[in-house]
Amino acid sequence: MSALLQNITHEVLSAPTWLVLLVVGTIVFVEDAIFVGFIVPGETVALLGGVAASLGHVPLAAVLIVVIAAAILGDSVGFEVGRHLGGRVVRLRAFDKHRDRIDSAQDFLGRRGGAAVFLGRWTAFLRAVIPALAGMSKMHYPTFLRWNAAGGIAWGAVVVTAGYLAGQSYAKVESWLGRGAAVVVGVIAVVALVVWQVRRHRAESGEQSPARESAESSQAR
Question: The whole model's pTM is what?
Fold first, then answer.
């Protein structure tokens, strides 16, 4: 896996500007648009876009614009998918193992409304399913769009900036030790950020599960 990440990092960082922006934008868009965000690594690729900007391969402003626009547009497409096809999609066998998490996401959306669209942007699974579930719930699109735009702007700015800051360390090591070692450091920085996101998501899930069990127990009484 580390060799694969190193190869991906090397290819992204050495690609032409237009290709970096195309790949980053497409993956971020697909992550949100077609209900597969827990498979497609949009956040990781956005981080690498920030690293590429830090190294001068692409303009930082261009990466920010592409990531934010792709996030907002992808969520909007996901919303429409949910509105027109969501019920059929979530009943597919491919989602059976995620049934409990989808139910929890629906409950979260029901409790928080538009705010769930913003908050869901910060975890991979919710980022994938909340737009479609919002469409299924018949949420008014202007309400969805306001929270979606706020989440896309905040998430895109934070993730790309994190990659940009990680890239500065990458550039220093590259000048000291050569490109091979610098690639490894860049991969480590990106992986560390991803692992942090995964652990935070698991911690949030762990906090929500006992609360849910407690609520169900109280209702049973």
Answer: 0.70
**Do residues 41 and 32 touch, judged by C-beta distance below 8 A?**
no
Structure token pair of residue 111 = 């409790």
pLDDT level of residue 176 (50, 70, 90 thresholds): very low
C-alpha 107/C-alpha 32 separation (Å) is: 20
What number of residues does the chain have? 221
Give residue 70's Cα distance to chain centre: 11
**Residue-averaged pLDDT of the chain:** 74
Per residue in 112-161, pLDDT tens?
A: 888 889 988 888 888 888 888 888 888 899 999 999 999 999 999 998 98
**How far from 104 is each of 63, 68, 98, 171, 212, CA to CA, in Å?**
33, 27, 10, 42, 9
